[in-house]
What does this fold into?
Amino acid sequence: MKVTFYGHATVQLETGGKTLLFDPFITPNELAKHIDINSLKPDYILLSHGHGDHIADLEAIQKNSGAKVICIAEIAGWLGKKGIEAHGMNIGGSFTFEFGRVKMVNAIHSSSMPDGSYGGNPAGFVLYTNEGKNIYFAGDTALTYDMKLLADDNINWSILPIGDNYTMGVDDAIKAAAFVNCQNVIGVHYDTFPAIKLDLEEARQKFLKAGLNIQLPGIGESIDL
It folds into this structure.
């Protein structure tokens, strides 16, 4: 199983012979200008919510790859009007795909589509993969006690926003890792905009002091899980 970071909150997960891409926002991100989205051929695209900094490259990548989109029901309806196949879900529901089971979980944020349409509720995902590892992609979220509901789900890796201002910051992300009972964290949603610039070494030291294995991969860098 491998994760590749493409900047902001965009990560790619390769598991069970399938490729999953989360929240594609690459071409508008100056930090990711060296990434060619035409090289990305996911089987699935998972969307946590409708903000432009999470779906900017959705249509281009989906049309280039034929990926099935997994998202909240309202976004699925919005995409359907564009001729894009999507599997709509809602908070608390789960569904089994080729690579494993996906559960849509709560996220505390906001959501609307780039054209101003209603984007439903923001969400996170828990993936119970066929490889036996469980991955929590929190999406854009504040720290919430709902995360404690995942404490018994044997989460192996948590992908958490750490940039503050729009989402949790480092300190709350550390608490989130404790809530979900997961020692392995991949930090996302930082440095893209001035309001979410981080001192990465300071952030790393905070996670390490808390006894967490923190990974902050460079854009385009992959790590084995």
